[in-house]
3-phosphoshikimate 1-carboxyvinyltransferase
Amino acid sequence: MKSVIVNKPEQKEIRVDINLPASKSLSNRLLLIEALAQKQKKQSGYTFHNLSTANDTLVMQRLLQEAKEGAILDVEDAGTVMRFMTAYCAVNNLSVILTGTYRMQERPIGDLVDALNQLGAQIEYMKRPGYPPIKIRGFVQRYPKVTLSSGVSSQFLSALLMVAPTLPHGLEIHIEGFLRSRSYVEMTLRLMEYFGVKTEWKGDVIKVEPQEYALRDYTVEPDWSAAGYWYSIAALAPFAHITLNGLTDNSWQGDRRLVELMRPMGVYTTFTPQGAVLTKTDELGELEIDFIDNPDLAQTFVVLAAAKGIELEAYGLESLRVKETDRIRALQNELMSLGYWLDEKHNGEWKLVKVSKRNAGTMPVFDTYKDHRMAMAFAPLALKLGKVKINDPEVVKKSYPHFWEDLQKAGFKLEFTNQ
């Protein structure tokens, strides 16, 4: 197995300018909107700048080109792509098969399939009901309304919203119960509005009338989720002056919440024309965070809290069970190397608990479970422990392909091995 040993920098201060990857959440939505708009009518004279080069976005680009009658479309491990392509292929009346990795076939898609079938799609499960792979046979809109059940994934809702203006009768979506990752739905609606589509969200109902997208120039923001790893580095370094180029305080991304969440962890953010500048400040001894709208930040905070000995109570982690891996189980396994355990108390409350002393005489080795965020959440621990070993370092290509190069730029010494 390939691995990388991450050694802490020789210098006390981490002073570096970083170009974060472009947001793959925005990029994938942008690509879907473009494909839908071009289906409505051919458009030109626009340019998308700073599109993500993450593997998820490359897969999205490839499948939009391959989406033809009779195609077998492999989304690999890209959950967003599975949800977006399901809606896209269905409403465009394409007879295709959508499949993915073994783990992808364990990630539920039933709520989205049920909603599309309510509208008039013909989608079948090829193996286990509620999960990929699926076969799409066609689409004729029968109803202009659909209901999504309590706790539905924001990606299901975003997929339906983006295809809604292309439907003959538009779409009215009723949301039952709470909505996870609401900030991603708000991002979707703002992007749709930018490209000329009006929506109405009142209470639990979102309405979208039949309309045409109007494509125009757009520049994708840097990824706020990726910024979290640099906040972690700033928190663990003795001194820090880290500039994250291009980040702004008026971002459309929900993970901009990092600014307020990382303040108690000892990181202060200043916005300049160049970007966000991270420096050190006082920290608190305990923290309580609800991750219901920011699940991609959870691993970063849990690992950082363990490294700093900060008491953390976390909520809203339910969706972590069905991500690239079971992220809760993965965290529990790997935190044991630090002497910590993530303990479920009650009603979705999780507490970081110290259960043993870390063996200071050995270099910690962390498995990544084919999960990019596991690799990047644990790598900054080299600042605390001197060095750490990360297995399967190539997983970062899913969202942050140049992560290891950026660590080297910041002064970390890396040793890549095949053992």
About this structure: The first helix runs from residue 24 to 40.
